[in-house]
């Protein structure tokens, strides 16, 4: 099963909606970014409902019958893989992960965005000859074209965009370091959402990352994002020539003044939050008002930032960006491209994610 999605960074180059593909659903928390997981909130609503895909709530569940879904869709599509899970969860067996990568290798007319908080397990798998033998075996069941066979043999899937979630400085060092060990993907990226602190990702901008996404947290228990955190990431990316995508402010707006509706929270660059009546506030503290994701929008310093990796129109297995010595692909300054129109900050349609 797959469905269209309103996730902004999964849209196709022509602005049409991308899709989700969930051969696994369910997960468990591993870090601060998981605290208010949208997927868990949605899935647990249906726990115990007979016949519902989330009858088991957010418990990890494999869906082998969904593996072939992308192969049956001939229109080139940008897929977000496992929007309702993490493919690298310990409860997902190595053989099943190999079957997912086999589909990605065979379906070269699609682009697959795979995001994980567990890159250490993936890096270990990708370095194992036995794992690639499983990928090759799984792909054989789909009568793979020569390009797919060659991609698996080379251990490089040009239509795979592999990313890690990075929400705090601690996890930047851990997860980006592991991502740097991999060379399987056409694009490697960081999703800094929910952004919960100021990040210095410069060590990975010159040799690992081909794309950076940033955004604040949404939902009823959202934590505000200091605007300088997003600005810092944008400026680091601009200096390095790496595309930057600002997804959303989240639940809080930078503009605390206005019609007076919505709770105001003061947040400083260290991430400490306080009410407006608590004093003294440090000089870098910013007043932010809870207005909801839709009203907060996606504009950062007067414009939207919808930059995508160069050569993002990479269907039919075309390479992404310019290849460098370690087998990865990166965007150059001249190759960065902005979407021609601003994409609405509409909230995700949860029913379309599984």
Quick overview of this protein structure:
Helix content is 24%, strand content 19%. By secondary structure, the protein is α/β, with parallel strands linked by helices.
Describe the protein.
- The chain is of the alpha/beta class and 354 residues long.
- The chain has 2 domains: 2-251 and 297-352; 253-291, no CATH class.
- It has 10 helices and 16 strands.
- It has helices spanning 38-44, 69-72, 94-106, 119-126, 129-140, 146-154, 169-179, 202-205, 227-240, 293-296; strands spanning 2-5, 18-21, 24-25, 61-62, 78-81, 111-116, 157-165, 185-192, 211-215, 244-248, 252-253, 264-267, 273-275, 286-290, 322-323, 329-330.
- Strand 7, helix 7 (169-179) and strand 8 form a beta-alpha-beta unit.
How do the strands and helices of this protein lay out in sequence?
Elements: E1 2-5, E2 18-21, E3 24-25, H1 38-44, E4 61-62, H2 69-72, E5 78-81, H3 94-106, E6 111-116, H4 119-126, H5 129-140, H6 146-154, E7 157-165, H7 169-179, E8 185-192, H8 202-205, E9 211-215, H9 227-240, E10 244-248, E11 252-253, E12 264-267, E13 273-275, E14 286-290, H10 293-296, E15 322-323, E16 329-330
Helix pairs in contact: 3-5, 5-6
Q: Order of strands side by side in the largest beta sheet?
A: 1-2-5-6-7-8-9-10
Mean pLDDT: 86
**SSE series:** EEEHEHEHEHHHEHEHEHEEEEEHEE
Please summarize the sheet with the most strands.
Answer: 8 strands, mixed
> What is the number of helices?
10
Uncertain residue segments: 313-354
By secondary-structure content and strand pairing, the structural class works out as alpha/beta
Helix content: 10-25%
Q: Separation of termini?
A: 7 Å
The structural domain count equals 2
Beta-strand percent range: 15-25%
- Described by the principal axes of the CA atoms, the overall outline is globular
Number of strands: 16
Roughly how many Å is the radius of gyration? 20 Å
């Amino acid at each position: 099963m797959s469905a269209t999605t309103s996730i902004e960074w999964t849209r196709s180059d022509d602005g049409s909606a991308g899709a989700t593909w969930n051969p696994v659903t369910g997960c468990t928390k591993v870090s601060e970014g998981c605290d208010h997981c949208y997927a868990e909130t949605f899935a647990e609503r249906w726990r115990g409902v007979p016949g519902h895909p989330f009858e088991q709530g957010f418990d990890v569940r494999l869906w082998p019958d969904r593996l072939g879904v992308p192969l049956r869709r001939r229109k080139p599509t940008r897929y977000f893989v496992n929007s309702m899970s993490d493919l690298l969860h310990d409860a997902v067996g190595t053989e099943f992960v190999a079957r997912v990568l086999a589909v990605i290798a065979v379906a070269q007319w699609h682009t697959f965005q795979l995001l994980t908080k567990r890159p250490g397990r993936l890096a270990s798998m990708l370095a194992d000859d036995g794992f690639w033998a499983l990928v090759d075996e799984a792909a054989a069941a789909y009568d793979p074209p020569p390009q797919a066979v060659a991609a698996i043999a080379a251990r490089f899937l040009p239509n795979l965009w592999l990313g890690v979630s990075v929400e705090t400085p601690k996890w930047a060092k851990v997860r980006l370091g592991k991502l740097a060990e991999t060379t399987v993907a056409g694009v490697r990226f960081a999703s800094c959402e929910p952004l919960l602190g100021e990040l210095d990702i410069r060590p990975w901008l010159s040799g690992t990352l081909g794309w950076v996404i940033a955004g604040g947290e949404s939902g009823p228990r959202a934590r505000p994002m200091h605007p300088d955190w997003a600005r810092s990431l944008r400026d680091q990316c601009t200096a390095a020539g790496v595309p930057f995508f600002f997804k959303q402010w989240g639940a809080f707006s930078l503009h605390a003044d206005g019609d007076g509706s919505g709770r105001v929270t003061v947040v400083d660059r260290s991430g400490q939050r306080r009410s407006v009546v608590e004093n003294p506030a440090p000089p870098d503290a910013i007043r932010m008002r809870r207005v909801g994701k839709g009203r907060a929008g996606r504009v950062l310093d007067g414009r939207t930032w919808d930059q995508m990796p160069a050569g993002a129109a990479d269907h039919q297995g075309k390479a992404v960006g310019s290849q460098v010595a370690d087998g990865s692909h990166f965007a150059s300054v001249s190759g960065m491209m902005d979407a021609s129109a601003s994409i609405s900050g509409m909230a995700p349609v949860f029913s379309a994610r599984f």
